[in-house]
Design a protein that fits this description.
155 residues; alpha+beta; Aminopeptidase; 7-stranded mixed beta sheet; 7 strands; binds coenzyme A
């Protein structure tokens, strides 16, 4: 499957929101995505494919998205999700590759993110790209839901 990555526009937001709602118990709102599109240090990218449309012919051409902040020497990944019908096809990996490529090109020193300890798929994805688990934030997402701070340093 040929996957392309491009910057998100406001027209993509309904599709991004659908993926967000299918992916997280406490999803971001439309207002929060709109805000990200206006922040100068924020970037939202989407993965698209001509060959594959999730949800059996639904109109959304968007397979997944990633939101990052680039501030000073740090790229922080705030959000990444892939449509449930398009997982395990390499979409999440393509989004990570672009975020890491850009961070290196912009001379960031590190890429950081937070992940639920119970989210084994995401932790595996990040480990695959060389992220290391640096710190645990106990009950960060609520009782019994710890966060792991992960970090990829460029040397
Ligand atoms: C995490 C997520 C973005 C991965 O996206 P994806 O497109 O399915 O991932 P890819 O197909 O690119 O997989 C890349 C690698 O990630 C790891 N991975 C992905 N899904 C996995 C799973 N269910 N179990 C174990 N490892 C997994 C594997 O190492 C995989 O490489 P491999 O296919 O060679 O084994 C996706 O599962 C998702 O949207 N989850 C819900 C939202 C979420 O949890 N976001 C992260 C918040 S921190």
């Amino acid at each position: 499957m040929a996957i392309q990555i491009r910057d998100a526009t406001s027209r993509d937001l309904p599709h991004i929101l659908e993926i967000e709602r299918l992916s997280f118990p406490s999803p971001w709102t439309l207002a929060s995505f709109k805000r990200e599109l206006t922040l100068p240090f924020s970037r939202v990218i989407v993965a698209i494919s001509e060959d594959y449309t999730p949800n059996r012919g639904a109109t959304s051409p968007i397979l997944g998205f990633l939101c990052r902040w680039l501030i000073a020497d740090e790229c922080h990944i705030l959000n990444i999700a892939v449509h449930p019908d398009a997982r395990r096809l390499g979409v999440g990996a393509m989004l990570m590759i672009e975020a890491i490529r850009e961070a290196q090109a912009e001379r960031a020193e590190l890429v950081t993110l937070e992940v639920r300890r119970s989210n084994l798929a995401a932790r595996q994805l990040y480990r695959k790209f060389g992220f290391e688990e640096r710190r645990l934030k106990k009950n960060y997402y609520g009782p019994g839901e710890d966060a792991i701070i992960m970090e990829l340093r460029f040397d």
